[in-house]
Structure formats: structure tokens, C-alpha cells
TrEMBL record:
Listed EC numbers: 3.2.1.86
Similarity section: Belongs to the glycosyl hydrolase 1 family.
Residues the record marks as active site: 387
Database matches in Gene3D superfamilies: Glycosidases (3.20.20.80)
Protein name: 6-phospho-beta-glucosidase
Taxonomic source organism: Lacrimispora defluvii
InterPro entries, per the entry: GH, GH_1_N_CS, Glyco_hydro_1, Glyco_hydro_1_AS
Keywords of the record: Glycosidase, Hydrolase
PROSITE patterns to which the protein is assigned, alphabetical: GLYCOSYL_HYDROL_F1_1 (PS00572), GLYCOSYL_HYDROL_F1_2 (PS00653)
Keyword rRNA-binding: no
MF terms in GO: 6-phospho-beta-glucosidase activity
Length: 494
């Protein structure tokens, strides 16, 4: 490594959260119920069984609506950012954040999704949050939709499968872009837009039993088409309303290696990777890639489009490409004798060269560099790493300290890989926001004990605790990284 040891000037260091996992206050301030408020924790289910944790039926929703319980529905309490945001932002500022990625809960602004008039109390809440951020010179990076469709759109429409939802979303985007035009410059449209294929309920408000007799894969792609059109409208609205604004897509960066050099394994890895790129390909190039159209044809999938859909998608591609990256996986033609582990929203094939987190996610900093190079070569648009981090069970020592050296080790190696990609591979990267900079409720397992933060929140899996905030060892470490613009990563003693 001969390159310099600091990040580019103006590199946006920060942290990331999502309203549905951090805010709480699920029934306060005029907020409506969102899909995530009805996402149930399965305490006895193996944490690596992603599918079991995320399966949702109409019956589950009825059960959720019948109770105000927050133990089984932990996203209802989150980390109570709703009441602690001033304290939390002060801590972010203490670490030196330049940017804070957060989402606006759609159901706080339009409680039912289809309302004519927005909820002023919800709008005011985000005004206050943005003002607080700006007070410390922290730039907000706002996700418009991070697993937060209002539940009414599931119950009285068919989630994103219904064409009308594009109109409701567009109204929401017009409202927030107009209201926050002087406060928010960086926007993301849909968090992990590709995730609809893996968890259709949280991303698209789709419940399979509400589509009897229909090809559910077709339902998912139809809903996704609506999100692509809506995303293009959102980009248009942002550009028209906020001069100089930048809008990004957001994808789950799932990186697959061939398990062996057998050509069939290499082909399998390539095909799997294409399967993950098809969504960002569509948002960056403004049209469906040929290989996705082939998949539609071969699987008997017909997407209903309206006049103007192709034009709007083509006219308003995204300005930058953001992504989450946590782990890598392998791909093989024959997986029958291979070991499987968990990954972000997937079951991954174990790579014998990698260690894994306590939740089974394989730790691979080099994979982040590989991912950045792939994305930049493919799109030639600036990248933004908006999620990365280690979910771990932290222990509070008797003296109140939290020694999360394992998290520091994970982050340090990933950050070095980012600088290698920038300096050696010529990748343009706008910034880095580590996931769950303050502890929050896990998306996949709904656990509070799967912690990512620099800031500990005293709350357990059942929502019990004082919700007090405490600085972990990594808090001081990250502060130093930001202060030195990355230089401290290379100094052993720190
Ligand atoms: C990403 C999501 O996929 O992964 C986040 O955008 C999520 O919402 C994060 O929290 C980490 O996953 P988990 O399951 O550990 O919370």
C-alpha cells in the first residue's frame, strides 16, 4: 500500500439509521401504522433463519392490529429517538459526523398513505430534527422509504402492486421536498429497492395470501415496476424543487464468489450477481436490462406498463449509487454438500477463508473493495456506502464501559478497504455512513441485542431498560477516525 492515508477532502463521514428501527413513538404525533409496526419478533426462532423471521400472513396483521403490545412488536419502541433526538444528535456531533443518514417515516407525514392533507405534527418533527442536525453542521441524507409503507396501503390497496400507490408516493415526495427544500440536499428513494424479492411485505407491502391464484413473482416485479416509476418521479421532483440536490438509488450489495474455479461455479456466481444488479441497472440506466427482460419472458412474467413509464424512467436516472455492504457469499452449481450460513437477507454459502459474526454473517473487508470496483466500473457514478457494520452482542462492564474492540476491528478493515478502492482503483466515493450508529432494532431478527452502534442504548430484546445512552469504546475510536480523516486507521497505537 503506497497511497496516502487520508480520505479525500470533504469525505462525508457519518452514521445511518431508519425511522422504523430507531424512532419509536409509533402511535404519537398523529403517526399512522406502518408495515414495520406490525412486524413481529420471533424470539424462539434460530437467528440464521431469515425467512422464518420475515414471513407475514394476513392473519399476522390481524393479530398485530389487535394489540398495542411493544414486546412482540419491538419496532414500535425502537430506540426512542422520537423523544431522544436532541441528545442523540449531540452525540453524533461529538463524534464529528458530517452526515447523518435517516429516513422519514411516510406514515408520520401521511398516516394512511392516501390522505389528501399531510400531518403537520409529523412534518414539524422532521423540521426539528433537520434544524438540530444543521445546528452542528451535520448534513442530512434522507431515505424516502425505508420499510415504512403505511399499513393502510396494504389493507385497502394491494401495497405497491396497486398503480395508485405511485400517485400517493409522489404526493408524499412533493410534500417533503417542498417542505425541506432548504434543509435536505441528499436523498435516497427506496432503501434496498432489490429487497422486495426477498421480503415483499416490508419493502412492498405485499402479502402472498392476498394474491390467490396469481404468480407471486410476477406480483413482486409489478410492484417493483411501480417503485421504479415512482423513484424516477421522485428524482424529477427533487431536481425541480431543490436545485443542486442529489438523488441516489440504494441497493443491497450482495457479493458472490465462485465456490471453485469450475466454469459452472463461475457461471453460477456471474448469474447470481446479475440477479442482484438488475435493480440498480434499471435505476441507473433508466431501462430494464436485457437479461431481466429475458427472465420475465422465460418465467412467464408480464409487467403492465402505462404510456410514459419508459420515458420517465429514462429521463430521470439517479445521480449516485448508494449501497449496504455487510458480508459476502459463495455461489456453486451444486450446493448439496456445502455449508450454509446467514447473510444480509440471504442464506449464504460458507467461504472457508472467512470468519463470521455471531449472527453468521461472513466478514470480508476485501469484498467491500471488490464491490466498490464492480459498481463503479459498471455505473461510473459516484458511490456512497450508506450501510456497513458489525451486529454484535455488547456487554456493559460493571464500571459502565463497553469494550467493543471486535467492532473496531471490523470497521477499521472495511474503512481501509474503502480507501484502497478510492486511492488505488480510482473509485469516486462520496461518503460512508456506518449502520446503526446508535443501537436500534434489527431488521431481520427484530432483536435489540444485535447491536451495531457506537452509542449503546439501554434496552433489551423485550423493550425493557432505561433507554439511557452510553458511549462505547468504538465511539472514541470513530471520533478519532473522523478527526484525522482516516489517518488514525493506520496508526497502531490508536
Ligand atoms: C439492511 C437494512 O439490509 O441491513 C437495514 O437496510 C438493516 O434496515 C441492516 O437493519 C442490518 O440488518 P439486520 O437484520 O442486522 O438489522
Amino acid at each position: 500500500m503506497n497511497h496516502k492515508q487520508t480520505f479525500p477532502e470533504g469525505f462525508l463521514w457519518g452514521g445511518a439509521t431508519a425511522a422504523n428501527q430507531v424512532e419509536g413513538g409509533w402511535n404519537e404525533g398523529g403517526k399512522g401504522i406502518s408495515v414495520s409496526d406490525c412486524a413481529r419478533a420471533h424470539f424462539d426462532t434460530d437467528v440464521t433463519n431469515y425467512k422464518a423471521h420475515n414471513a407475514v400472513t394476513s392473519q399476522d396483521i390481524e393479530a398485530a392490529l389487535a394489540t398495542d403490545d411493544e414486546v412482540y412488536y419491538p419496532k414500535r419502541h425502537g430506540s426512542d429517538f422520537y423523544h431522544h433526538y436532541k441528545e442523540d444528535i449531540r452525540l453524533f456531533a461529538e463524534m464529528g459526523f458530517k452526515v447523518y443518514r435517516m429516513s422519514i417515516a411516510w406514515s408520520r407525514i401521511f398516516p394512511n398513505g392516501d390522505d389528501e392533507v399531510p400531518n403537520e405534527e409529523g412534518l414539524k418533527f422532521y423540521d426539528d430534527v433537520f434544524d438540530e442536525l444543521h445546528k452542528y453542521g451535520i448534513e442530512p441524507l434522507v431515505t424516502m422509504s425505508h420499510y415504512e409503507p403505511p399499513l393502510n396501503l396494504v389493507l385497502n390497496y394491494k401495497g405497491w402492486y396497486s398503480r395508485e400507490v405511485i400517485g400517493f408516493f409522489t404526493r408524499y415526495v412533493e410534500t417533503i421536498c417542498t417542505r425541506y427544500q432548504d434543509k435536505v440536499k441528499y436523498w435516497l428513494t427506496f432503501n434496498e429497492v432489490d429487497s422486495m424479492i426477498r421480503h415483499p411485505y416490508t419493502t412492498g407491502g405485499l402479502i402472498e395470501d392476498r394474491f390467490p391464484g396469481q404468480n407471486f413473482e410476477e406480483v413482486i416485479f409489478q410492484a417493483m415496476h411501480h417503485q421504479f416509476v415512482a423513484s424516477a418521479h421522485a428524482t424529477r421532483i427533487c431536481h425541480e424543487t431543490i436545485p443542486g440536490s442529489l438523488v441516489g438509488c440504494m441497493l443491497t450489495k450482495l457479493t458472490y464468489y465462485p465456490y471453485t474455479c469450475k466454469p459452472e461455479d463461475v457461471l453460477k456466481a456471474q448469474q447470481t450477481m446479475r440477479g442482484t444488479y438488475c435493480y440498480s441497472d434499471t435505476q441507473v440506466f433508466g431501462e430494464y436490462p436485457a437479461y431481466l427482460l429475458s427472465r420475465f419472458k422465460n418465467n412467464g412474467i408480464t409487467i403492465r406498463k402505462e404510456d410514459g413509464d419508459d420515458e420517465i424512467m429514462k429521463s430521470y436516472p439517479v445521480d449516485f449509487v448508494s449501497f449496504s455492504y455487510y458480508n459476502s457469499s459463495c455461489a456453486a452449481e451444486d450446493t448439496s454438500n456445502l455449508n450454509v450460513t446467514a447473510g444480509n437477507t440471504i442464506n449464504a454459502i460458507k467461504n472457508p477463508y472467512l470468519k463470521a459474526s455471531d449472527w453468521g454473517w461472513q466478514i470480508d473487508p476485501t469484498g467491500l473493495r471488490i464491490s466498490m470496483v464492480d459498481l463503479y466500473d459498471r455505473y461510473r457514478k459516484p458511490l456512497f456506502i450508506v450501510e456497513n457494520g458489525l451486529g454484535a452482542a455488547d456487554v456493559v462492564n460493571e464500571d459502565g464501559t463497553i469494550d467493543d474492540q471486535y467492532r473496531i476491528d471490523y470497521l477499521r478493515e472495511h474503512m481501509k478497504a474503502i480507501l484502497d478502492a478510492i486511492e488505488e482503483d480510482g473509485v469516486d466515493c462520496l461518503g460512508y455512513t456506518s449502520w446503526g450508529c446508535i443501537d436500534l432494532v434489527s431488521e431481520s431478527t427484530k432483536q435489540m441485542s444485535k447491536r451495531y452502534g457506537y452509542i449503546y442504548v439501554d434496552c433489551d430484546d423485550y423493550g425493557k431498560g432505561t433507554y439511557n445512552r452510553m458511549r462505547k469504546k468504538s465511539f472514541y475510536w470513530y471520533k478519532k477516525v473522523i478527526e484525522t480523516n482516516g489517518m488514525s486507521l493506520y496508526l497502531e497505537e490508536i
